[in-house]
Automatic annotation (TrEMBL):
Domain Histidine kinase, chain residue ranges per copy: 1-148
Leader peptide range in chain numbering: none
Subcellular location: Membrane
Protein name listed in UniProt: histidine kinase
Top-rank lineage group of the source organism: Bacteria
Length: 148
């Protein structure tokens, strides 16, 4: 469990910002008071780094990517938001299938495995993941994990 969720998230955002060739503005917005949470740090890292790297990869240079974190009742909520290419409605049902990639990826490289890993990690935490997306407007992934 990351002892300090704030530091964990800000370090992760900083790490991705450093590795970002497209120079997005990656923002960490925290709206929580609960710093002590119990969850597997490696699983949380794989969830957030996959979602954030997709947000970076599928949105254009100079745009804003946000990680928003807050507590709600007995859950912790993570949202990853981008202003990118969006996901076609027809591809949403297969989003978590290994090797499935949406029809609008064009020449953006990828193997289609990241979201399958995210789904597995969320399930291991007994959490939920939902997506809201609009073509050429952007995508928001919401991950809800029980605080225990
Ligand atoms: P990789 O295995 O390297 O992560 P990938 O990014 O193609 O490859 P996933 O992360 O599993 O694969 O994502 C599956 C598909 O979902 C992507 O190919 C893309 O079509 C779509 N997708 C995921 N996140 C986004 C996003 N933020 N914006 C637009 N499309 C997305
Ligand atoms: Mg990916």
């Amino acid at each position: 469990c990351p002892a300090n969720l704030f530091k964990f998230c800000s370090d992760l955002v900083e790490e991705l910002q450093l590795g970002d060739g497209k120079k997005h503005t990656i923002e960490f917005i925290k709206k929580f008071e609960c710093n002590t949470i119990y969850m597997d740090e490696k699983l949380l890292r794989s969830i957030l780094s996959n979602l954030l790297s997709n947000a970076i990869k599928y949105s254009s240079k100079g745009s804003i990517v946000q990680l928003i974190v807050y507590c709600h009742l007995k859950d912790i909520v993570f949202q990853v938001k981008d202003c990118g290419i969006g996901i076609p409605a027809e591809d949403i049902p297969r989003l978590f299938d290994p090797f499935h990639r949406a029809r609008n990826v064009n020449d953006i490289p990828g193997t289609g495995l990241g979201m399958a890993i995210v789904k597995k990690a969320v399930d291991l935490h007994r959490g939920q993941i939902t997506v809201n997306s609009q073509i050429d407007v952007g995508t928001i992934f919401t991950v809800i994990l029980p605080l225990k």
